[in-house]
Amino acid sequence: MALAHRVLTRRGTGLALLAVLPIGFLAVLFAWPVAAIVGRGFSGGGVATALAGGETWRLAAFTVAQAAASTLLAVLAGLPVAFLLARVRLPGVALVRTLVLIPFVLPTVVVGLAFRALWPDGGVVPIVLANAFFNVAVVARTVAGLWTHLDSRAEAAARALGASRSRAFREVTLPALAPAIGSAAAVVFLFCATSFGVVLILGGARFRTLETEIYLRTVDLLDLSGAAALSLVQLAAVVAALVAGAVARRRRETALRLRARAETARRPEGREWWVVAAGLGVVALTLTPIVALLVKSVSTPDGWSLDGYRALSGHGSSGTLAVSGWDAAIRSLRTATDATLLAMVIGVLASVLLVSLRRSPGRLARGAGEVMDAALMLPLGVSAVTVGFGYLVTLDALPGDLRTSPLLVPLAQALVIIPLVIRMVLPVLRSVDERLRQAASTLGASPARVWREIDVPLTVRAVVAAAGFGYVVALGEFGATSFLARPTSPTLPVAISSLISRPGELNNQLAYAACALLMLVTVAVVAAIDRLGTGTVGEF
């Protein structure tokens, strides 16, 4: 008994030490700034004023409406792609898996400018299409993850009893896929409701969401109380979406456990070719804005030109940028590297901690793990603009005023990356067969050696993929960075935003060339990640 007590005490101490860094980071760089925004929203009657104003409800209605429309379109477009990835064995399907992921990891300013190349005047339609384009991969790869494990014999039995192919799909397959569809729809709605760069570029001053209004009130109008009140309204909606997403994700994980038999992909038959054609058509359509952006980057009123790329060594028309385009690109690479290193340390530690808590015999420890898992996911759904705004009103209280530190932008970007790292690493850690670990312990291996020789080799590919995925997300992060980056040290997305907000053909060409550069780097990293074959990228 004494030995067991010492072992449990030592284990509890180790878990507590492991939790210090992720919980401390989350408390100081997320909970505190968001709580400050909530408090500022309640102070001085800001919330009551915002709720009483018709403009707030118009903004909320437009935010929800465009997010709902984008989600519906993304689900409808993603289902045939999911069928293609899950059930079809044809040459080139592996390439489709990579191509469909590219839009999801593109920086939002790139997506916005890509659609502006097709719709120069912007508007509601391109906003909805751009948000749907951005999230087709979430639907396709989340649903495909469950569809791969569905036993097709149930649908075959329905067909044998006289049901048509479409009826068998509606009454057998579709209900079985409902948990994955619900999980994907909740995540897509969350992303669309907090979309910033896309709405800012395509909506301008005419079409605004809560996210862009918070930014405009803070930066242009200096209405901090009003912005805080709107942040509180948005936070309530985000928490509701997160709860719905967590419930749907749990149902999907349960469905996956109940359907452990993987179905082998096969060649399509009969009318299934129409579904394959639809899936390939969706993939082709998602590439159209990317091609349009590349064409725009070499187009001028006088014909084809590389002037925009040559202008990367300059500062734009009339010194729009305080630094050259190349300097902004180098700043982006350095900032993304710092953010990724920090996010990997915290994200992997948090994943190890969550797995350890789940394997603990005590109900209290497992419950703490569930709570911590949910808390670590909150930054994924809470507006990056709100978090950046929170930094401006809180971090001056820390020694040295962190608001002026060059580390502030990497810290904000790391906060965005950490939930993605956890979502990619945690499932792989959980899948490690506990019997292997127990056998190693029985043979005398210490816990550290068990992790080093069993867990690490089995999870290293997922960790590398998470690092690459986090890197491209940090590279294109725009919401919080637009608040925090100083004019003398902008990242490339912030520089692009500055260029398109100023008149001048050279600024326009330079912005599109910078977007093309950012996009090519992103595509190269994503292709390398997908070659690892972890199967986790884009699956939420």
TrEMBL record:
Domain ABC transmembrane type-1: 60-243, 329-530
InterPro entries: MetI-like, MetI-like_sf
Gene3D superfamilies, sorted: MetI-like
Predominant cellular place of this UniProt entry's protein: membrane
Keyword Lyase listed: no
Annotated SUPFAM superfamilies: MetI-like
Record's signal peptide: none
TM region(s), chain numbering: 12-39, 59-86, 98-118, 124-144, 174-207, 227-248, 273-295, 339-357, 377-395, 407-429, 510-529
Keywords: Cell inner membrane, Cell membrane, Membrane, Transmembrane, Transmembrane helix, Transport
One family name in Pfam for this protein: BPD_transp_1
Organism superkingdom: Bacteria
Membrane topology reported for the UniProt record: Multi-pass membrane protein
PROSITE patterns reported for this sequence: ABC_TM1
CDD domains: TM_PBP2
Protein family membership: Belongs to the binding-protein-dependent transport system permease family.
Protein name, as recorded: Iron ABC transporter permease
Species lineage: Bacteria, Bacillati, Actinomycetota, Actinomycetes, Pseudonocardiales
